[in-house]
Amino acid sequence: MSAAVELRQVSRVYGSGPTEVHALREVDLSVRSGELVAVMGPSGSGKSTLLTIAGTLEEPTTGDVVIAGQKLARLSRHDRARLRRRSIGYVFQNYNLLAGLTAVENVALPLELDGVKVKVARAAAMEVLAKLDLTEQATRYPDELSGGESQRVAIARAVVGERRLLLADEPTGALDSLSGEVVMRMLRLASHDGVAGVVVTHDAQMASWADRVVFLRDGRVVDQTVPGPGLDSILTPGATA
Ligand SMILES: Nc1ncnc2c1ncn2[C@@H]1O[C@H](COP(=O)(O)OP(=O)(O)OP(=O)(O)O)[C@@H](O)[C@H]1O
Fold it and tell me: Can you give the residue ranges of the ABC transporter domain (predicted)?
C-alpha cells in the first residue's frame, strides 16, 4: 500500500542571497495510513514548514511530495485544491475558526464546500462534536468558547468527513494537559480509522501518543524513534524550544 503522504528529498529555501534561509534540507519522510507521527525540534528547525509542505499549502523548492501515490507536481491546480479540501484536515496554532459561524457551522463547512447537503453535513458535524464532548457548545460562536473548546472545534473540523491525512501544528500548545490529552486521543482514534496523522509538538508527553517521533534540527531529520520511556532522554537540553 502506498504511503498516505511521502516527502522525497524535500528542500525549502526562503529568500535569496544574504537573507536566504534553508528551512528544510533533503527531508525524506513517509507516513502510512493509520500511522501517527510526531515532529519535534527546536524553534526554527522547520517543523511548521514540513507540515505546510506535507499539507500541499506550500511547494518545496526541490524534491517531491507524493500523496496517496500521486505526485503533487503532476496534478492540476483544480485537482490539488480538491485533494486539499477533501482529504486533508488541518489544525493550526490559531485555530482559524470563522467568527460569524457557530461551532457546528464551522465544523460542517468543509463538507458543505464540497457539495454535501447542509442537513447531512450538519449531522456529521454534530456527531464529531459529540465525540469531542462539545454537544452543548455546538450553537455557540467562537468568541463564546474557551481556548480549549475552540481547539477541539478546530480538531472536529479537521476530522469531519473522509479525511485521509490530518496535520496539526502544536495542537496542545494552548491547552492544559488534560484537554491536550483529549485532543491527542481524538487524533489517535482517527488513526485507528486509517487516517494518517502528523503532529508538531514540543511536549514529550503528547509525542508519546505517536507511533513514531521524528526530530528536526536545522531543517534536517536528525533522528527517528518509537516513543517510550526513553523519549525524555533523547530530548537533550535545547532540543525542545
Ligand atoms: N515565509 C517565510 N519566509 C522566510 N523565512 C521563513 C518563512 N517561513 C519560515 N521561515 C524560516 O524558516 C525556518 C523554519 O521555520 P519554521 O516555522 O518551519 O520552524 P519551526 O520549527 O516550526 O519553528 P517554531 O517551533 O518556532 O514554530 C526559520 O528560520 C524561519 O524563520
Answer: 5-241
Q: Is the CB of 57 under 6 A from ligand 1?
A: no
- In short, whether 241's Cβ falls inside 6 Å of ligand 1 is yes
Domain boundaries, the chain: 5-97+159-234
Q: What is the pTM of this model?
A: 0.86
Give the CATH superfamily of 5-97+159-234. Answer: P-loop containing nucleotide triphosphate hydrolases (3.40.50.300)
pLDDT for the residue numbered 223 = 87
45 lines ligand 1 (CB under 6 A): yes
Q: Is 58 exposed, middle or buried (0-12, 13-18, 19+ CB in 10 A)?
A: middle
∠211-213-216 over CA atoms, to 5°?
Answer: 160
